[in-house]
Amino acid sequence: xxxxLENLLGRLLLEKDISAFYNFTDQxxxxxxxxxxxxxxxVNANKVRCNRCGTIHIKTNVKxxxxxxxxxxxxxxxxxxxxxxxxxxxxxxxxxxTYLRWTGKxxxxxxxxSNALCQQITNNQKLLVQAVTGxxxxxxxxxxxxxxxxxxxxxxxASPRIDVCIExxxxxxxxxxxxxxxxxxxxxxxxxxxxxxMTSHQLLRFKEAFDLLIIDExxxxxxxxxxxxxxxxxxxxxxxxxxxxxxxxxxxxxxxxIKKA
Length: 261
Ligand SMILES: [Zn+2]
Known about the structure:
Blueprint: H1 3-8, E1 13-14, H2 15-19, H3 26-31, E2 35-38, E3 40-42, E4 47-50, E5 56-58, E6 85-88, H4 108-120, E7 126-130, H5 137-140, H6 142-150, E8 155-159, H7 162-175, E9 182-183, E10 195-199, E11 210-216, H8 227-236, E12 237-247, H9 252-260
Parallel strand pairs: 7-12, 8-10, 8-11, 9-10, 11-12
Antiparallel strand pairs: 1-6, 2-6, 3-4, 4-5
Helix pairs in contact: 4-6
The protein binds zinc ion.
Zinc ion (ZN) is lined by residues 50, 52-53, 55, 71, 73-74, 80.
């Protein structure tokens, strides 16, 4: 499979995103049978929804001089315009193999939680691990990550905090054998891997990609009770994918999300 196709598996990209790594032409679009999704959809005569972040806008507030609408909410990731399209290809499995090289030992308590997670994460689960800083919650999720990866699945780790992402990326790169992309702000340094670390906004560039999405420091601003990012989580995970929230505290919205599961 060529690079453009690989980089589109499980992703939701605008033509300008794709142009960053490929000279995009209509010919490529047709040959490769990319799935084309309208960037914005009219909800009714007055409202229009952005299909990247899910925000519904009043048309007159977001109308451009050329007559098309745009989404101000997810502008940070590049402007979405109603006369443009997203491109997507369905996610594919990775090769089934062992990636974990960490040989450390969990405490009895950590092991209990690790085992419980491995048993409970099956299909479409939402789980919350509340652990104080320094309780070793990263090591507690290693077995779970390995379980998904060894079956050819994909795992995403997201946090609203860039410092948390950088630290997670360093630790996972040390403790797993695969190359792991670290995605943050505008630059798209993506390459295909079964394990991806990203800031929470980057989730909006994925569609039905992950068997397991882990959200660290979910209580940190700006993720806290942010409708756009809960929308992103639901879209970025596979339809039967799982969500695991790691947090030191909890929020009303989060509690409701978990109870729904
Ligand atoms: Zn948007």
